[in-house]
Amino acid sequence: MQLNFSKYDRQQRLGGIPGVQATRAERSALNSAEALWITLGGATPMLLYRTRQGDAKVFMGLTSESDMTALVHKMALPNRSM
């Protein structure tokens, strides 16, 4: 990061480290993720989660730490039975 920001060109908005070219599979995955994001409202931040009852939920926007804590407690725990 230091190299990237130490050589940052503010006029061209480019850093000191050249970007990488995504593979066809990576580009496809990114396009699919972006399409889903737009379908769900296109907001940032956006939190997608499943409740303990199995319902899929979308939460958009910022909230207080106490509200976020309450939201996290409603989420389903990951399945760790592997």
UniProtKB/TrEMBL annotation:
It comes from Verminephrobacter aporrectodeae subsp. tuberculatae. This is Uncharacterized protein.
